[in-house]
Amino acid sequence: MTSNSRERLLGLFERMLLVRECELKLAELFSDGEVPGFIHLSVGQEAVAIGVMDALNDSDTIASNHRGHGHAIAKGVDLDSFFLEVMGKEEGICGGRGGSMHVADMSVGMLGANGIVGAGIPLAVGSALAHQVQQNNNIAVAFFGDGALAEGVLHESFNIASLWKLPILFVCENNGWSEFSPTSLQFVAEVRDLGKAFKIPFRQVDGNNITAVADASDEIVSDMRKNGGPRVLECMTKRVHGHYEGDQQKYRDADELASLGDYDPIMLCEGELRKMKAADKDITAIRNRIENRVSAAADVGRAGTLPSFDRLLSDVYTPVQEA
Amino acid sequence: MGEVRFGQAINLALDESLKNDPSVVVFGEDIARPGGPFGVTRGLLEKYGELRVRDTPISEATIVSAAVGAAMSGLKPVVEIMFMDFITIAMDGLVNQAAKARFMFGGQCSVPMVLRTPHGGGVNAGPQHSQCLEAWFAHVPGLKVVIPSNSGDAYGLLKAAIADPDPVIFVENKALYAVKGQMDDDAPALEIGKAHIARPGADVTVVSYGAAVNTALRAADTLAQSGIELEVIDLRSIQPWDEATVLASLSRTHRLIVLHEAVTAFGVGAEIAARMADVGFDELDAPIVRVGAPFMPVPFAASLEPQYLPDADDLIAAVHKVLA
Q1: Which of B177, B210, B219, B248 is the most buried (most CB within 10 A)?
Q2: How far is B85 from B62, CA to CA, in rounded Å?
């Protein structure tokens, strides 16, 4: 093990932990009534967001889904603006108009979480089309769950991306659940076979292994920048929390729920780090740093102001002076 | 430039936009190599190349959502949905994505896309190729809906729609494609949301848009022979619509009819009538009358469709009613 690879893994560990702690903080704020609406947590799936994003540049674009906190944070949305948004505050990245399901930050290429299952996929196709027309060597990434496999736009998007050789990476976060139902009862095909059917190179990785996701993403993205065209990456992972926060998951076997800890990407990463002789003090320092960052961001969120209703109409259409 | 066909005016506006702005791209089903089902996009592929002018597969939902994603990433896509009836398959992209992105992202972005699509009957295309569904989109905050009635307006309004920072549905009545009209290619782009008084008249205001404006003008010619003068207002866009021009006209004529090819019930006419009954109540000397299609799908048979479509006689009957 080189110290380089240990430093890299420490960095990935820290970023995964940031997503995890942000979401656990949101869960706490949600149960305290400080986060309105619905939130869908990606606890257990952090390695996908962090591993894929590790391979991207700021100018690459992503389209996310309803389980998108990790994607937003990993792509670089400012943490304070993120908490302010999810807590419905004026200073939020979207002015409190969108909330958890619509966090977007155009300045970092985050084209938005999405409340409609599968809807981000064709948006990413369009973004990839823009990259291709502008010949800027950027790529677009569509993040979606296995629940979106049954949506028609996914199949249309695979076809168009392949026909037009668009620079798009389709990332399926396969956690086995389509909302409240096992995907095995909802969808008969395999992602691998879809890739083959649409002539898009496919790769499957252990989505709970951050090194596996990050290495595969690096290889895929470099290959895309060099050779163009779409790719499919399927990350096999686990959804720990319910479809949304508050979902008791009575539809899941107790055994399955009890086993989830074995797949925890952060614990697995910490185990790797210890094998690589990472110092306890370094890991403890990371934990402390993240705890302080998240706690500070949540405080900023609490201190935010409530949005003014009067300003809303001015963003339904672009004001004339900006046109 | 003189007389050009409606379809050719649209082609010229697309051509000019592609020429002047490298961020404009055009895509849709059969629009590139075949030149469009009505020939409207003919020649654009040859001039601007396959990077910017593309045939898509038959995937309406992804055509529209990809336009949204492209518009959020620096392009100005102009996409075509071959018949307005097929737009049902693309509703998510329009209603949940394009219309809401600016608002729900707190004004971070606009979605500068145009969706061109033909509506309307008159060619016996039947229930799934003839509908006028524009009222659906006028009901969605965040979308604009533009519907020209003639070649010159089609040219000026399409250029305005492409320059507009927000998503615009540009509706073309398919019965107009071959109709010739005056077009001045030096004319400035028209302003979306400004109506045009197509014919001034003192007795009754007729508000209309798209091909129905021509029906109103024919009725006005007929009625002028018996001394009744219609003022025909061409809305040009129904979202936003020019309330001030309609109210000013109503204040002169004191009688108002709204004419459109779409089904009357819950339509654009209902909105205009409701609004004028509110802000123009004191001006009205007669009830506001709507003239549109009956509440049924568009029938196919050559003998049935003319009975379904609102025509000049229907409008003339309504005029006599408000003057009675």
Answers
A1: B210
A2: 16
Q: Which residues from A are below 8 Å from B67, CB to CB? A: 126
Has residue A265 been placed in a domain?
no
Residues of chain A with C-beta less than 8 angstroms from the C-beta of B92: 116, 119, 153
Q: What share of chain A is helix, strand, coil (3-state, %, to 5)?
A: 55, 10, 35
Q: Is residue A322 part of a domain?
A: no
B69:A111 CB<8 A: yes
Fold adopted by B2-183: Rossmann fold (3.40.50)
B260 is catalytic: no
Tens-digit pLDDT profile for residues A86-135: 999 999 999 999 999 999 999 999 999 999 999 999 999 999 999 999 99
Please judge whether B73 and A61 are an interchain contact, meaning their C-beta atoms are less than 8 angstroms apart: yes
CA distance B239 to A53: 40
Give yes or no: B60 in active site: yes
B-side interface with A, Cβ within 8 Å? 25, 51-52, 54, 56-57, 59, 61-62, 65-75, 77, 92-93, 96-97, 101-110, 141-142, 144, 163-166
User: How many Cβ contacts (< 8 angstroms) between chains A and B?
Assistant: 145
Domain with A76 in it: 3-252+277-305
Q: Is residue A44 part of a domain?
A: yes
pLDDT digits (tens, 9 = 90+) for B22-72: 999 999 999 999 999 999 999 999 999 999 999 999 999 999 999 999 999
CATH 3.40.50.920: which residues of chain B?
A: 196-323
* Cis geometry, peptide bond prior to residue B310 (ω within 30 degrees of 0): no
pTM over 0.90: yes
ipTM of the complex, rounded to two decimals: 0.96
Pick the catalytic residue: B29, B80, B119, B129? B129
Q: Report how far residue A218's alpha carbon sits from residue B212's, in angstroms, rounded to the nearest whole number.
A: 58
Residues of chain B with CATH 3.40.50.970: 2-183
Q: Residue B204 in contact with residue B228, Cβ under 8 Å? A: yes
Selecting from B67, B102, B164 the residue whose C-beta is nearest the C-beta of A126 gives: B67
Number of domains in chain A: 1
Domain B196-323 is of which CATH architecture? 3-Layer(aba) Sandwich (3.40)
Name A16's Cβ contacts closer than 8 Å, sequence gap at least 6: A46, A47, A50, A210, A265, A266, A269
How far is B320 from chain A, CA to nearest CA, in Å? 40
User: Residue A112's closest CA among A147, A77, A154?
Assistant: A77
Residue B1: pLDDT over 80: no
- If contacts are CB pairs under 8 Å, which of residues 71-110 in chain A contact chain B? 92-98, 102, 104-107
Instruction: Report how far residue B67's alpha carbon sits from residue B52's, in angstroms, rounded to the nearest whole number.
Output: 12
Q: Does A58 touch chain B (CB under 8 A)?
A: no
